[in-house]
């Protein structure tokens, strides 16, 4: 079982990854945010650092996919290489932060290896409006994220909807994050667990 968790910045992917890893004994694979040496520079000057930051994320996610996801039977991942290409890099290209030449180079790298990557057995999409994202970004307190414009988050949300809507070969579970607080509310967490368990997942204590 390979579960991929997709969602915008601040939607709660890392938290949900940890919750599912513990409850269902899944190996967690987290986004290498703190390892990205370009990220703070990127948020300060997207025009100069967008391509560098995306190439780092692409290389890191491909490494994670080949070394951890392809080789393990039970995995949950915090953001995939697929959405990084189809949502984040695409958005930067559409906004003019990645040139046409660099976009072609990026896509060539992604498309060249994508066929070798394991596809998720289930995609969980955390759908959150800009107000919810802004609140959660503020709570986690990463200084470099405070400068993210609402328009940038809204653009990513639009591309997420297009990308998720285009996924045909993987089952999708959409979580309405504006109405769910799976961090603080046990009932909301229980609802998510119920959705997963009717799809065949078993809690840790039942897995033995």
Tell me the name of the CATH class.
Answer: Alpha Beta
In total, the number of domains comes to 1
The third-level CATH topology is: Rossmann fold
Round the mean pLDDT to the nearest integer and report it: 91
Return Rg in Å. Answer: 17 Å
N-to-C SSE string, H for helix and E for strand: EHEHHEHHEHHEHH
Proportion of strand residues: 5-15%
**Biggest pleated-sheet summary:** 5 strands, parallel
Continuous helix count: 9
Dominant shape: globular
Distance between the termini: 16 Å
* Major β-sheet strand ordering: 2-3-1-4-5
Poorly predicted sequence stretches spanning 5 or more consecutive residues: none
CATH level-4 homologous superfamily: P-loop containing nucleotide triphosphate hydrolases
Q: What is the structural class?
A: alpha/beta
CATH architecture: 3-Layer(aba) Sandwich
Task: Report the count of strand segments.
Answer: 5
Helix content: 55-70%
């Amino acid at each position: 079982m390979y579960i991929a968790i997709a969602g915008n910045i601040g939607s709660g992917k890392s938290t949900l990854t940890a919750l599912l890893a513990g409850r269902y004994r899944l190996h967690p694979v987290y986004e290498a945010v703190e390892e990205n040496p370009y990220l703070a520079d990127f948020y300060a000057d997207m025009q100069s650092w967008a391509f560098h930051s995306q190439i780092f994320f692409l290389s890191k996610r491909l490494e994670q996919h080949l070394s951890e996801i392809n080789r393990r039977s039970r995995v949950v991942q915090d953001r995939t290489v697929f959405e990084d290409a189809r949502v984040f890099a695409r958005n930067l290209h559409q906004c003019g932060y990645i040139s046409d030449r660099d976009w072609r180079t990026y896509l060539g790298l992604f498309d060249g290896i994508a066929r070798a990557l394991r596809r998720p057995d289930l995609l969980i999409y955390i759908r959150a409006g800009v107000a919810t994202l802004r609140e959660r970004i503020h709570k986690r307190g990463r200084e470099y994220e405070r400068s993210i414009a609402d328009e940038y988050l809204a653009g990513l949300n639009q591309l997420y909807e297009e990308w998720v809507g285009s996924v045909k070969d993987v089952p999708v579970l959409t979580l309405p994050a504006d109405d769910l607080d799976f961090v603080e509310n046990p009932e909301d967490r229980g609802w998510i667990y119920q959705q997963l368990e009717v799809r065949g997942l078993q809690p840790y204590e039942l897995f033995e």
